[in-house]
Amino acid sequence: MRAVMKGRDLEGLVFLGKVESVNVEFCDDKKTLAKVVVKTTDGDEVESECIPVRAAGKISIVIKHYLRMGIGNHIITNEKSVGNVDMEGENETEDRQTS
Questions:
Q1: Could you say which of 6, 44, 56, 98 has the lowest number of CB atoms within 10 Å?
Q2: What is d(CA 63, CA 70) in angstroms, rounded to the nearest whole number?
Q3: What is the pTM of this model?
Q4: How much is the pLDDT for 44?
Q5: How far apart are CA 24 and CA 34, in angstroms?
Q6: What is the reported pLDDT for 25?
Q7: Cα–Cα distance for residue pair 54/56, rounded to 1 Å
Q8: Helix or strand or coil: residue 16?
Q9: Among residues 80, 65, 20, which one has the least CA distance to residue 46?
Q10: What are the Cα distances from residue 21, in Å, to 18, 48, 53, 60, 94?
Q11: 3-state SS, residue 18
Q12: 48 touches 7 (CB < 8 A)
């Protein structure tokens, strides 16, 4: 039994670095509804609810692009947090108020 998540939550798993692969499975014989199935790095499978095929295809393509770009490797890893936020320097909102 797979856990069921929304499509946007499946995309969020990519940003957390938890997605290994993605696939689309049809829900009916007419092939009008499909679900996105994600295999996680933990070996579990998570799926979306049955949605129109076009929407499932778009979600899977976005996830595949994120995986190719290596998004999960640059944002959060199990060992450490990596960020692009400048933690040093002055507060920009204070600078705007005094200028």
A1: 98
A2: 11
A3: 0.70
A4: 93
A5: 7
A6: 95
A7: 5
A8: coil
A9: 20
A10: 10, 14, 18, 10, 44
A11: coil
A12: yes
Residues 6+ apart with CB under 8 A from 50: 27, 28, 33, 34, 35
Cβ atoms within 10 A of the Cβ of 93, count? 7
Residues 6+ apart with CB under 8 A from 71: 14, 15
The CA dihedral of 8, 65, 47, 20, to the nearest 10 degrees, is: -120
Interatomic CA distance for residues 50 and 34, integer angstroms: 5
7 contacts 14 by C-beta, under 8 angstroms: no
- Strand 3-5 with 45-48, pairing: parallel
pLDDT at 20: 92
